[in-house]
Amino acid sequence: MPDRYSVASPYRAAGRSRASAAVRTNWRLWLSGGLLTVAIVFGGGGSPSPSTELVVELAAIAAIVAWVWLVGRDPAYPQPPIDRPLFIMAGLFVAIPVLQLIPLPPAIWHHLPGREIEIQALALVDRADAWMPFSESPPRTIASALSLIPPIAMLFMVSRLRGRDRTTLIGVLAALGLVAAVVGVFQLASGNAHWFRFYEFTHYGFETGFQANRNADADVLLIAAMALTAWATAEGRIERSRQMQVLVAAMLLFLALSIVLTGSRTGVALIVVAIAASAAMSFHRRMLKQWRIAVAIAIGLAVVGTSGYFLMNNARVQRTLARFDQGEAIRPEIWKDTVYAIGQHWPAGSGVGTFQPIFNAAERLEFVRPDFSNRAHNDYLEFALEAGLVAPVFLVAALVFALLRIRKMLVGNTSRDKQIRGIFVIGSVMVFALHSVVDYPMRSLSLGVVCGLLAGLLGVSGGLDRGVVGSEGVED
Q1: In terms of Cα–Cα distance, which of 422, 426, 400 is closest to 411?
Q2: Which pTM does this prediction carry?
Q3: What is the rounded distance in angstroms from the CA atom of residue 220 to the CA atom of residue 209?
């Protein structure tokens, strides 16, 4: 009888093959996790900080080159098929600013809405008949197009990860959120010394983490809290360890308090979304008894209530709560002027990235302030101004595509981990969608890369997981 553990044994050869594949797979995880880390740390400055955004863009290019060299060229590394529908949607989004840079003959661009003043200005220097691009500010549109490199790179890499590596990457996102919250603690502890303030234009006196905008930091922490729950729930060892459960609960409470200390009113309100998504991820298993759910909810409410009672007298918490009593009269006026500018450029749009100069020309004199409006504080209105009719069409198409993919992740014979990732995507997309009504989370390159991660999670998992059976059934 041949020895099943001999060198020539197919069992040992298969074991070595699986071990070798596991080592190779780590390249995917290291590259995607590295890009995510660089994006969170350096991508929070927005357009006023082009140097740090350039760092993220160069890191994305380097990650893709390394991916092709280390992963794509390895014949022993099985490559999953390309998710064509996902990449078609991503390509359509990238095509919006790229097509706006194509020069047009004067017979076409002269008839675009909102170009009358530009024609008159160019006529003064005998340039009215020159070919001009669709965008009214090509340099700004070019910068916007370049800023799409990191999110698209993240989408590509996540879509090529197998299911277990996707869950690990979600854990990396949770860890980065915790680090950002710790940075926020040092920011508040420093007082007027302003330790760990990375940007000149930022919200002093509030926790901002790696972001310049407290609202963006609140979104990072909200998504990190849901990512922590997703990772902890998908990790069976954590579910079996009460010590780890207590530790995860303490970290979630720390993230919730950090969100309050950002001073973001919408961020605080969206804690409800994070709680709902976390509860859905934690208690979606049928094997859990109803009394366990009731006890867990009761303990959670007791902890939150007790913490809230002791924190009510905290000056920084009171400062955040006081902001709910402050009337916000500026945003509605910005929205009115943005709607007027949309009408002036509809249905063509003014070009991606051109909000600021277009808005300055449309702003009513009676509402001109010492500072300026760099954003519409409503991403839907700003996108409609810059892309015209293409904006609502694309958003509806993207929503339908996302709903179909999420339904596929949640319904049918899918793995438990895949269902958890689907709930995580739902909660995170809701944070983005709701906060975009009153702010501009997608304009932070950090959050743009996180959005690319979410889009990548909607992709069909790599074929490496097919046929791998665990305690919860077949991995996606």
Answers
A1: 422
A2: 0.83
A3: 9
Output the six-digit token pair for 37.
């880390």
Cα 445 to Cα 52: distance, rounded to the nearest angstrom: 10
CB–CB of 145/95 below 8 Å? no
Token pair recorded at residue 354: 């051109």
**Phi/psi class of residue 209: alpha, beta or left (left: φ > 0; alpha: ψ in -120 to 50)?**
left
In a domain, 16, yes or no: no
For 132, list phi and psi in degrees, rounded to 5: -130, 145
Q: Domain span at residue 257?
A: 23-100+141-326+379-464
**336 domain residue, yes or no:** no
Work out the pLDDT band at 174, boundaries 50, 70, 90. very high
The DSSP secondary-structure symbol of 468 reads -
Comparison of pLDDT for 172 and 15, the residue scoring more:
172
Measure the CA–CA gap between 270 and 432, rounded to whole angstroms.
10
Structural domains of the chain, count: 1
User: Which residue is listed with tokens 């194509």?
Assistant: 102
d(CA 129, CA 172): 53
* Sequence letter at residue 181: A
> Nearest-CA neighbor of 157 among 78, 72, 224, 220?
72
Residue 345 lies in a domain: no
469-470 and 132-133 strand pairing:
unpaired
* 392 located within any domain: yes
Distance in angstroms (rounded) separating the CA atoms of residues 32 and 39: 11
Is the CB of residue 256 less than 8 Å from the CB of residue 202?
no
CA–CA separation, 158 and 458 (whole Å): 9
Q: What is the pLDDT of residues 428-476, one digit of tens each?
A: 999 999 999 998 888 889 999 999 999 999 987 654 444 333 333 334 5
196 vs 257: CA distance, rounded Å: 19
- Cα separation, 134 vs 214, in Å, equals 34
Note whether 93 and 452 are within 8 A (CB).
Answer: no
